[in-house]
Amino acid sequence: MKHEKPSDLIAASHVDVLIIGAGISGIGMAVHLKEKCPDRTFAILERRSDIGGTWNLFQYPGIRSDSDMHTLGFEFEPWREQKAIADGPSILSYLKRIKDERGLNDYIRLGHKVLSASWSSSEARWTIAAEVEGPGENGPRVQHLTCSYLFMGTGYYDYDQGYDPEFAGRESFGGQIIHPQFWPKNFDYAGKRVVVIGSGATAVTIVPSMTDKAKHVTMLQRTPTWYWSRPAKDWLANSLRAIMPDEWAYRLIRFKNVRMQQIAFRRARENPKKVGDYLLKRIRKIMGSKMHEPDFQPPYGPWEQRLCLVPDGDMFKAIRDGKADIVTDHIDRFTPTGIQLKSGRHLDADVIVTATGLKLAMAGKVDFSVDGQPLDFTQHFYYKGCMFSDVPNMAIVFGYLNASWTLKVDIVADFVCRQLNHMAATGSEIAVPVLGSDGPVNEEQIFDFSSGYVQRALNILPKQGNRMPWRLNQDYLFDRKVLREEAVDDGVLAFRKAEADVEAPTAIAAE
Fold it and tell me: Per the record's keyword annotation, is Oxidoreductase included, yes or no (predicted)?
């Protein structure tokens, strides 16, 4: 079914490609589709009332990127702002500009929460059930749509809840408790004593940002975190843009930063003590005698968890200047006036921010089935980090833990477009990675990161194979070669027609 006008897509009940999510992944996929598969119809379903995903959801003070925008930006759209470490509103503006300039408005259906997706091999299509916001008192209704190919750009956050552990005495606290994922609009914390529980990227962002109005801000951490301080502005990128076109400067800086990320990660894994000493030296340079060494020395090596970025050393400066402090201790209980620590110390607080981490969700928590059988992702292997064994016509983005999310978006979107063009050229209607077609596959641990949000989610994640193509890698340059240069028809990804006698796909147990 082809459409002469994009506006027709607003009412279409079937499209060639259905994109779920209008955040970085969904917007990126849409642009690649328009450029590389111009004959394919598509639509984007977004559960929220606006695009942006993460950058629309999170509204806590200081929300910003924890990667540089020359790699968090798309390969097709240069980042032109002065700050390479950008705030949330700037990133959202970047996405909206792409949406407008690339003509995506007519493809996006807001207020559509996908509930289920069921695949039929006989029809070679997915049937989607989405809850659609209704006007006035009508309330939500369920709408059914179909597509030939499904692209999951839902990210990996649980949008409905963050990780918020139980603390004894929580109900006795007389102040306000806030999880960053659900920050109250226009919340006034002027003159208040704030305790931020956590030491990850969210806490590191919130602490210096709240010192502008708060009486004092304390970061309460159970375990120290490794921090990397760098300028928010990239002087080289800004200098290059002054003497050459933005596109050229962007490509050069992107190339440099990708390789620097790879080198830094490799060195941290190979020589963690040397890298750790270097990171601590940078902090000492900013904080001087105000640095309490035990608060900055984690019991694990750099990049065993994601390195926390501190642009312009803002958190270190806030501690040095007495506007904030760090306390390393364990919580015994909440009290009416603050937090009682196991060491015996009491932290007085008017506001407690539980920056205790994210909760991961698999494929947007959509209820999947294949040929009438429930789809349990934990029983399927990743295929090239973007599809799943024996699951037809579906791709997903799970970004890198050691690099920028968007790097993965661009190469996965390109791979899907190559796949769609191959299907069109060969008259195929089904593309399915067949487990066992290239021999037995052994299972191994999917991540070697010790981050809490990763470890808590291992029970919902797909399987990791001991060899390609049955892996989710943390190596962008390797993945780029696999997804962009290797043949789509690799003998594992099977291409079929709908009328073929196809048995219902089932997972094959690891040897």
Answer: yes
